[in-house]
Amino acid sequence: MLVIIPINALIAKKVKFLQMEQMTYKDERVKMMNEVLSGIKVLKLYAWDPSFKNQILKIREKEIRVLKSAALWNASISFLWLCSAFLVSLVTFAVFVMIDERNVLTSEIAFVATALFNIMRTTISIFPMTVQVTLQFLVSYRRIDEFMNAEELDLNSVSHDESKSDPLIMEGGTFSWGTSNEERPVLSNITLKIQPGQLVAVVGVVGSGKSSLISA
Q: How many helices (H) and strands (E) in the chain?
C-alpha cells in the first residue's frame, strides 16, 4: 500500500491540472453562451448563429477531451486501490511463507488474514472518492481565492456631483475589461455629455464599440 500511495499522488497531480484546464474551457464556453443569449436577436438578424455555434462546439470539444482524460486517470486511481487489497494479501502470504521455512500457511491463518483484509477493503474503496473530492475542492478553492483577491475597482474613476446640471458627463474616458493592466483599452478618449430630456442615439458600424460604450 505504501508503494501505491506515491503512484496515486502523481496521478492525482495530473488530474488536478486537467480539472483546472477543464474549468478554463468551461468558463470560456459559458462566457460565449452568455454573449449569444444576450445578443440572440442580432445573431438571428445577421445570420451569425452558425459561426457562433461552431465556436462553441470547438470549445466544447476541447472540454470533452480534457474530461475524458481526467476520467481515465480517475479510473486508474480506483483500479489501483481496488487491486491493492488483493495485492496486499498476496504479498503478505508470500512473505509469510518465504521468510521462514517453519511458517505454514494454514486455513486458519489464511481465513483470519483474509477477514482482516476484507475489513481494510471497505476503507480502501472510499479512498479514490476522497481523492477526487479533495482535488475538486482544491481547484474550486484556488479559483475562489483568485477571484476574492483580485484587484479592486478604482472607486475614484466615477464620481457623483449633484451640483452638475447634466445627468451624465464623461471626459477623456478609457475603458477596458481585462484583468491585466497592460491590456489594450477597448475604448479610449471618450468624451460625452448628456443633458436632461435629451434623446441620444449611438450609431456606428458593427464592432465599432456601441455596446461597449453602453456597458461602460
A: 5, 2
From the centroid of its chain, how far is CA 131?
A: 17
3-state secondary structure of 172: strand
Assigned domain for 123 exists = yes
- What is the signed CA dihedral for 66, 70, 71, 77, rounded to 10 degrees? 170
Specify the pLDDT at position 162.
Answer: 67
Q: Do 93 and 112 sit in the same domain of this protein?
A: no
Containing 92, the helix (H) or strand (E) segment is helix 49-98
Same-domain pairing of 113 and 98: no
Domain assignment present for 66: yes
Whether 113 and 61 map to the same domain: the answer is: no
* 78-111 pLDDT per residue, tens: 787 777 777 777 778 888 888 877 778 788 888 8
In the numeric block, which cell numbers belong to residue 56?
A: 462553441
CA 114/CA 93 separation, integer angstroms: 10
Give the total number of structural domains in the chain: 3
Q: Which domain, by its residues, includes 204?
A: 168-177+186-215
Radius of gyration of the chain from its Cα atoms, rounded to whole angstroms: 30
pTM metric for this prediction = 0.53
Contact 212, 187 (CB under 8 A): yes
